[in-house]
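Risk register update: the risk of archive-format incompatibility is retired. Evidence:
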Amino acid sequence: MPVVTLRSTPYLLLPTETGNRYLPLVGSNCWTVGRGDDNNFVLSDRWISRNHAMLQCTETGDFYLIDLGSRNGSFVNGRRVGIPVTIRNGDRLMFGQTELEFHCPSNSRNSDISQPLNSETMTSTLHVRRLMSVMVVDIRDFTVLTRQLDEKILSVVIGTWFRQSGNIIRESGSWVDKYIGDAVMAIWFHNNAQGVSSQEALNILQAISDLHKMTADLSSQYPLPFPLRIGAGINTGYAMVGNTGSGDRPDYTAIGDTVNAAFRLESATKQIGLDIAMGEETYRYISELGDPQLGFKQHIVKLKGYDEPTVTYAGTYADLDNFLGGHF
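Archived output:
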């Protein structure tokens, strides 16, 4: 076995009352931090979530910190991070009330110690299974719009829509995971043990309402052949999250049936002629919010790629706004 020396190995420094603890980042390319015993680094801080955050190293030696939907957040140099961020030598990381220092000696980038023990590349597998809600929002009739609108105006309209969508989603506690042509995908991580909290459920619904209103406002500002409209699909469940990109182009995302179904649910809104469709699990959490009830109706839809019919709960933006009006 190789000898691990701090002079050549990335590590976390954890000051304690009895002295410094050194947590070497070796033997893998991914390390989890949290209160639960299933983490690589277990921190006994009641303000830390069971699965709080993840550090990942790309094949170029760059390190990323990814918050896993922790209740109290992850901070780098005093700033809360909501999306995967690069961390550098000497950065201060705060989880709960526990502060650590990240150290990455200059000669560790090509160290064999920091490579994974198996033969897979650093970006070939995902590492953390998380409970999450996935939202997909799509601009309706976008192809028709591209044929009827001047390219310069189209570029301005779509660029503005993407930018404002990102702002709304960030304010709701998530981030835009993907920009896909005429759609955005956002993810909210949840505490595995507690599920979706009331506030998280309301934040997701408010984000959809705000996206709808922003789209309508934007539509009135430009000479468009028809008003812009959006459809939304929301699904809650478990999926794997990690880096699917390459070292120089890291791409942190989630994959799995939960994500696929969110895309299919958004497409299903066109089949049933409604604005929003959500999976059964999402609807269950929202139903727990109590009166007034969300006026969405149950529908049975055939999702592309699924052998069996799927139950969804769907409704309009008016239904959504009536519901939110009773909770804010």
